[in-house]
Amino acid sequence: xxxxxxxxxxxxxxxxxxxxxxxxxxxxxxxxxxxxxxxxxxxxxxxxxxxxxxxxxxxxxxxxxxxxxxxxxxxxxxxxxxxxxxxxxxxxxxxxxxxxxxxxxxxxxxxxxxxxx
Length: 117
Fold this sequence. Notes:
The longest helix is centred in the N-terminal third of the chain and has 4 residues. It is built from one helix and six strands. The protein is 3% helix and 50% strand. The chain is mainly β. It has a three-stranded antiparallel β-sheet with strand order 1-6-3. The relative contact order is 0.35. β4 and β5 form a beta hairpin. It has one domain: Immunoglobulin-like (Sandwich), CATH 2.60.40.2080. The mean pLDDT is 92.
């Protein structure tokens, strides 16, 4: 469990991660382990590392092979995170969109910076 102090804020977004079918990209024509990483910045800087959740909101995937998908938020900081999408084996993915949500503390205008003696 994560506890927050101060002003709690929620940031959210939606991001198309790739459209591989139109360019014969690796997610569509490749095989074996494949990965896409995209940096996502927050609208404001959180005081501490926020809680981030991410999920698929759209996927266009071939039905001729098994659907193998792994999506995660990695390298989370107060400024942003990396959206990481992975697949493997013979899975063919044309395109993917992910939605994310971040919850954390923001600096409040009434916060004081008191130097320690």
